């Protein structure tokens, strides 16, 4: 689905991602893990066009998308969620999903102000698209509740629905289980599996090792911006370089310490 070749970005003297060559296979779940500051979010920001790389290439289904802007990357079928929930709490669940759908519609501000035919058509389309996305994440029954009234898990589902509105083939989830209790985490894992069974390719950044080890087909491990290991959960959890990276993180209070220790 996606290949990155020699991908890198520097912020001044800081090489946040350095010479990463890796693949995200279609129809699979790839987890990107690593201690705090390893470059995981930056890697996502590069793939999704938020940052322009200072070196390397990004190839999506055989097409070079390295220099595309965020909305162009969305247009090619890549969507993402964010670490912190970016929903509008005072709006309804459906209105939030419709905002996700708006990314794809063509009506401009003038259309919206003048309530042109195109704007009305787009609104109807957004409503239908929003509802479809809510069905996919199991929230169709809560469409008219205010988003802020939902549980943490429900709000995460809204965030995922917003991303699904652009009909992505590749979905990037940035710390989807952050702030969730174990039961909510298990529910979220089931949802992600369902989405993949429906044909989606998923990449996720996550600190919660129970989710990563239980869900990922493949894991990429970043440390100081570099890819230090990749493979199945079993291969990665027993990799000496990974254990070393996690133990280092643990010694400095990083959350990743638990991965090498409790699962090795
Ligand atoms: N916009 C930016 N400007 C300058 N430095 C940045 C920027 N974005 C990220 N960095 C730096 O890049 C490095 C990697 O950060 P990044 O947030 O990608 O790590 P991470 O693995 O996602 O960490 P965490 O697990 O704590 O979220 C850090 O040193 C960070 O300070």
From TrEMBL:
The keyword Nucleotide-binding applies. The keyword Transport applies. It comes from the Bacteria. Keywords: ATP-binding, Nucleotide-binding, Transport. Residues 2-249 form the ABC transporter domain. GO terms for molecular function: ATP binding. PROSITE patterns: ABC_TRANSPORTER_2. CDD domains: ABC_Mj1267_LivG_branched. This is ABC transporter ATP-binding protein. It comes from Deinococcus taklimakanensis.
